[in-house]
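hi! just following up on the protien thing from before. the input was this:
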Amino acid sequence: MSDTPAFLPFALPEIGDEEIAEVVDTLRSGWLTTGAKTRAFEAAFTRFLADPSLISLAVSSATAGLHLALEALGIGPGDEVITTTHTFTATAEVVRYLGADVVLVDIDPATLCLDVDAVERAIGPRTKAVIPVHYGGRAADMTRLLALAARRGLRVVEDAAHALPTTCGGQLIGTLRSDATVFSFYATKTITTGEGGMVVTRDAALADRMRVMRLHGMSRDAFNRFTATVPSWYYEVVAPGFKYNLTDIASSLGVHQLARARAFRDRRAQLAGAYGRALADLPLTLPPDASPGDLHAWHLYVVRLDDVAPISRDRFIESLYAQGIGCSVHYVPLHQHPYWRDRYALRPEAFPNSQRAYERMVSLPIYTRMSERDVARVAAAARAALVATARA
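and the predicted 3d structure came back as:
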């Protein structure tokens, strides 16, 4: 029998008996698409945020949610939207769906979140909105950003794909004074529905537009039409909408995942603390915690190799994989990708903080099913890669 330990993946979801039973109940109910359970999930999400003025709309992905929010805000050809280069392409691509242009800015080198000063410098006559990203589960500087947006007349749509539950200034992300906030429930996120997302807003008109546009621009959804006790088959298409609704199967997972969101965050925080203690003496820059008094969701645990590290980032990753440790890089910045680079003639030197971080960063495994022994194993693998190499 081999003594080689099992491969430790970068991420795994935690699905319990409650989620499984709810999905089975949905399968047996005869109603699988958007219906009563999706509405229950939306209502539960608003209760979770503890602000009854909020409206929560479940969607098929965070990408869909960002697209819907920007479309409802009237973003279109001739407009510009500012966001960070250090994000997944979905944050920016939705702007191009609408025919508008993306303006990319650099990050704060400490937090890896969008640099508010860079945003201010990038504002031009065509700028209509800004999309901050709460990188890794740590809040961007929303106090300064929202003040800037109010002063300059910009709309704000938060990309909160990493940020459930995260706080900023003591308030949960999702309850700030932005126009909309978009969460992700992708398989690797802090809670999951497999695929899916949620858009949150206080603006009833914005919510109405997104609700119509998420299902083909129809005036009535299928659940209303097919479950009514009197004839109600008639509907009207009032706009050329999209197919962005979340199914009841996915929402069956969501209602129970959401009920465990705080416990999941606490476990991730424990794992982050264990990493911090185990890695403290290595030539690594560890991820920053939240600001005092705030919560970090710890969706990611991103370390950066110091200049004195004896190996490159790529060799470090190869060494961890050779020791059975899965890891990743978040992200290859947008200015490096052919589409964004070529369309906007982007050069790495325009984004020195993102570029430097990218060349040194590694995302280590962090998920609720990990044990302290798993953390110790990852730390030992990192130590072997860095210390053993230095001695060689």
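Residues 59 and 245 are 5 Å apart (CA to CA).
The first strand starts at residue 55 and ends at 59.
cheers
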